[in-house]
Amino acid sequence: MSLKRLILSLLCQLMLIFGFEAVVNRHGGGRSTVALRMPPAKHLQVEPGASFKIALFADLHFGENAWTDWGPQQDVNSIKVMSFVLDKENPDFVVYLGDVVTANNVPIANASLYWDQAISPTSARGIPYASVFGNHDDAPFVWPIEWFSATGVPPLRCSSADSSSNDNDECNFLGTTRLELMKHEIASDSFSLSEDGPRYLWPSVSNYVLQLSSSNNSQPPVAFLYFLDSGGGSYPEVISSAQTQWFKSKSLEINSDSRVPEIIFWHIPSKAYNEVAPWFAIHKPCVGSINKEKVAAQEAEMGLMKILEERTSVKAVFVGHNHGLDWCCPYKNKLWLCYARHTGYGGYGNWARGVRLVEITPQPFSLKSWIRMEDGAVHSEIILSS
Ligand SMILES: [Zn+2]
Fold it and tell me: Are the CB atoms for 228 and 241 separated by under 8 Å?
């Protein structure tokens, strides 16, 4: 971390401790500013004429096979990918798009230790971020067959991401709930802008909206960023009708005339992705570089896509989950359905790792996207709205 960012990071922590509203210019006179405030007024800020860049870290899958050599090496490699892209692109904001950890592979009591590792490249650079849950984040631990002894009783093999604590009391493998993971992230790091969503939607936790504002207060908001929990792991892979109702009433409440563009993030693609998926090669109007598997969609569609389709303000949806897909395709000529790019070395598939970037420019509003690969190459540039 540079000295400037270190000082900035300490300053932010101090300002948050003392409850000030802090407007922080991360770039020291650069493209944009980022506002960090005490809850509940978390919001992001961009200067008029500047642009706001978001990096999507999808499917990192930290914590796989900690009892072997290759597992921890995957996490080291994932840190390298994130660090490289953060330094190359210098984004204003990062979205952790689910499957941050592979909890079904994490034999420690507290998966937050792995979650923290995944967040660390972003947090260490003083970049604000938000996260949504994927199907692996709170999945129950699955015992590897090779652990079972001849008598059928698995030997106790506790391993800890924090090597200083090797206490057997920590060795319960019960898993870490979505709520525990989210509360830990929010409480332990002031750069987290995540929220644990309305209580009545629990156990679906990562449901919230962040406002991107202009630093000129007389201007309307630049965009609303919506985050939804698409389930999986401890409960079905679905965005429920209760979540749909929450989105409907929230968007009507804060953007009743649909004047402010809306951008949506969740993990598991909706069934609508099946409708737009390219056959074999990716051809226009779709843009992307890999189309290597079938869309693995949510189990049911409970009305959200209909609402998104009817709101002229909704410009694009971004998901992860399918590691072998990285395209964007238009849906009913109304909005774009996009995949991120598999960022982590954890999880299935050996396609080269990369990061989807999303850039918002206010006045006039435009939404651009591209993919930055771990070797530095850029591809799949597209204007999603202008
Ligand atoms: Zn995944």
Answer: no
CA atoms within 13 A on the CB side of 140: 4
Find the mean pLDDT for residues 96-101.
98
- CA 24 – ligand 1 centroid, Å: 33
Q: Tell me the whole-structure pTM to 2 decimals.
A: 0.88
- Structure tokens belonging to residue 100: 């941050």
Q: Is 272 helix (H, G, I), strand (E, B) or coil?
A: helix
How many domains is the chain partitioned into structurally? 1
Pairing of strands 378-385, 366-373: antiparallel
**Ligand 1 geometric centre to CA of 118 (Å):** 14
The per-residue pLDDT for range 213-224, each reduced to its tens digit, is 998 877 889 999
Separation of CA 31 and ligand 1 centre (Å): 33
Least confident of 22-36, 114-128, 369-383: 22-36
pLDDT one-digit tens code per residue, 115-136: 999 999 999 999 999 999 999 9
What is the pLDDT at residue 38? 37
- CA 98 to ligand 1 center in whole angstroms: 7
Residue 23 near residue 215 (C-beta atoms within 8 A): yes
Helix axes 70-89, 112-124, angle to 10 degrees: 30
Structural domain that includes position 315: 3-385
| CATH code: domain of residue 320 | 3.60.21.10
- Which residue in 86, 129, 53 sits closest to 367, CA to CA? 53
| Residue in 378, 225, 236, 367 with CA at minimum distance from that of residue 297 | 236
* pLDDT level of residue 63 (50, 70, 90 thresholds): very high
Contact 99, 59 (CB under 8 A): yes
CB-CB neighbours of 374 under 10 Å: 20
Report CA(352)–ligand 1 centroid distance (Å): 15
- Residue located via tokens 């597209």: 382
